[in-house]
Specification:
The structure holds 2 protein chains of 2 kinds.
Chain A lengths: L4 E2 L4 E2 L12 H24 L1 H4 L1 E2 L3 H25 L7 H25 L19 H22 L6 H25 L25 H8 L7 E2 L6
Parallel strand pairs in A: 3-4
Antiparallel strand pairs in A: 1-2
Chain B lengths: L2 H11 L3 H4 L3 H14 L5 H13 L4 H26 L9 H27 L28 H22 L9 H27 L23 H4 L6 E2 L2 E2 L4 E2 L2 E2 L2 H6 L7 H8 L5
Antiparallel strand pairs in B: 1-2, 3-4
The chains are: A mainly alpha, B mainly alpha.
């Protein structure tokens, strides 16, 4: 998609052949959402040089906050779609839980956007083609992956933060992500809130959750984010 | 503590280590690189030695936090040990029994890990051991049936987990700094496990009708489904302002964040004094 951006004009050139009739409903929804994000992305092209080396997260605490903002964008976009097109036979409880989580992720995303203000990265374009939103198993498996990833990302990034207030804020969010992760896991298989010791290991022998570096996290998140992200200036 | 042994171990992982131990600034600069080469489990130990080498003193703030955390973990660990071992309290052979056993094991692992880390940081001196007798789980008769009434047991469990989440969150800033990176990360990793536990316990209690069956895995306002005895544990959880941003009422993607969702989306921290006030009634 990025190749379709005309950076000099800031316009999106959508191929005429890709009309709605040729797409499934799900793909169209993805396509429509992606276009909205692209418009914002295109608008930011000129100043951020997005075309050459991806969206630069920046350095220091700003970089870490943008990194979190990127992940929250991914999660929010996912749950917005989940509620927009609920999977087959979704129960009232599950829809209520997933709606709550959607709102929490939007709150996180909008918080970072407001806190970062002029330093915020643009809206990212997501790629959900691997997710079948009509299927409970596919949706919950993705939700589990995103929540566990989010927990590990905040756990790994805490040591990179310089300002105490930001560390506390990250802490305020990560425990909510962990509450989400545990619930989603229990929806898939009751009792799997901390994984197990064999094929689904998330808590180690010392009782510690996962922690991942930004590069490890972005390698996984990159499967669902079409926009190229440049984390090269993040602290390490 | 035998510093030379530790340095020998580090040298095996990083042959250039000895050349890096002075001046002090070099030590700090090089921590990142040697940390990658030392097994993660050995890191608190190695950092403890390095810190002493660099500053010639024990990192008292870090030790204070870790000892405080150890008390909380003992409180939880002894609680679940007793609960799981009490015949007839938790329905045997149920998913609930499996879950509570798993939580018991996680808390025991936290105790063991903190003890190892503290001992290494203070030169091998072991921290004080606590036992079931160190605690009063009725909290001075506030929960007299804690080990005979399953619902009371679950309520106290939830209270402990939600307190733990808030406590670690509040202490995290005291673990900041280049020399403490491994300790801070470990504390955050324990923090999120406590939140996973809290989430599951809240689901268990919801299924049993807590807060009229509306209790959620996350904290809505100050709702605990327990009663006034745990008010201090949930005080301030109804906050909707984060770093000057009012989360309640934010509208995006055609969705407006409700006051409830705004409180749920962010867990609040407690200070050490606030946590001690909560925990003190549970001390024998």
């Amino acid at each position: 998609m990025t190749k379709n951006i005309d950076s000099t004009e800031g316009k999106i050139l959508v191929e005429p052949a890709k009309t709605v009739s040729g797409l499934s409903r799900r793909k169209f929804l993805n396509y429509a959402g992606a276009s909205a994000s692209l418009a914002l992305l295109a608008a930011a092209c000129k100043k951020d040089d997005v075309m050459n080396d991806g969206v630069n997260l920046g350095s220091g605490d700003t970089g870490i906050l943008n990194y979190a903002y990127a992940l929250e964008q991914l999660e929010a976009a996912f749950y917005i779609q989940v509620i927009k097109t609920p999977y087959a036979n979704i129960s009232a409880d599950e829809k209520s839980y997933l709606t709550d989580i959607r709102d929490h992720e939007i709150a996180h995303r909008e918080f970072f956007k407001a806190a970062l203000a002029g330093s915020a990265i643009p809206a990212l374009e997501v790629n959900f083609t691997s997710i079948n939103f009509a299927d409970r198993t596919s949706v919950l498996a993705t939700a589990k992956a995103f929540e566990d990833l989010g927990v590990s990302a905040y756990n790994g990034a805490g040591q990179l933060i310089v300002k105490a207030d930001y560390l506390v804020l990250a802490g305020k969010i990560v425990s909510v992500e962990a509450r989400h992760a545990a619930l989603i896991r229990d929806l898939i298989s009751n009792g799997s809130f901390v994984g197990n010791s064999t094929d689904d290991k998330i808590v180690d022998a010392n009782g510690r959750d996962l922690a991942r570096t930004p590069s490890e996290v972005l390698a996984i998140a990159g499967n669902y984010i079409k926009t190229k992200i440049n984390p090269s200036n993040l602290p390490s | 503590m035998n510093l030379h042994n530790i340095f020998d171990e580090i040298e095996k992982a990083d042959p250039e280590f000895t050349g890096r131990t002075s001046p002090r600034r070099e030590v700090i600069r090089n921590m990142g690189s040697f940390g990658k080469k030392v097994a993660l489990t050995a890191l608190p130990l190695a950092l403890g030695g390095l810190f002493k080498k660099a500053y010639g003193q024990t990192p008292s703030d870090v030790l204070d936090v870790l000892n405080f955390a150890l008390t909380l973990e003992y409180l939880e660990s002894e609680f679940y040990k007793k609960g799981v071992a009490t015949s007839g309290l938790i329905p045997a052979g149920t998913p609930a029994f499996t879950a509570l056993t798993r939580i018991r094991d996680d808390e025991a692992a936290h105790v063991a890990f903190l003890r190892t880390t503290i001992a290494s940081l203070q030169g091998g001196t072991q921290p004080a051991t606590k036992t079931f007798a160190s605690f009063d789980y009725t909290a001075k008769n506030t929960f007299p049936d804690v080990f005979s009434n399953y619902d009371t047991f679950l309520a106290v469990a939830q209270a402990f987990e939600d307190t733990g989440v808030r406590a670690y969150k509040g202490q995290a800033p005291r673990l900041m700094g280049t020399a403490n990176r491994a300790v801070l990360t470990a504390a955050l990793q324990i923090h999120s496990v406590e939140a996973r536990h809290a989430s599951h316990l809240r689901q268990m209690r919801r299924a049993r009708g807590a807060a009229s069956g509306t209790l959620k895995p996350w904290i809505t306002g100050t709702v605990s489904g327990i009663g006034s005895a745990t008010n201090a544990i949930y005080a301030g959880e109804d906050n909707t302002m984060q770093a000057g941003v009012n989360i309640s009422g934010i509208t995006a993607d055609g969705i407006t964040i409700s006051p409830n969702a705004a409180t749920e989306a962010f867990d609040e921290f407690l200070t050490k004094d606030q946590v001690l006030a909560i925990v003190t009634p549970f001390l024998a």
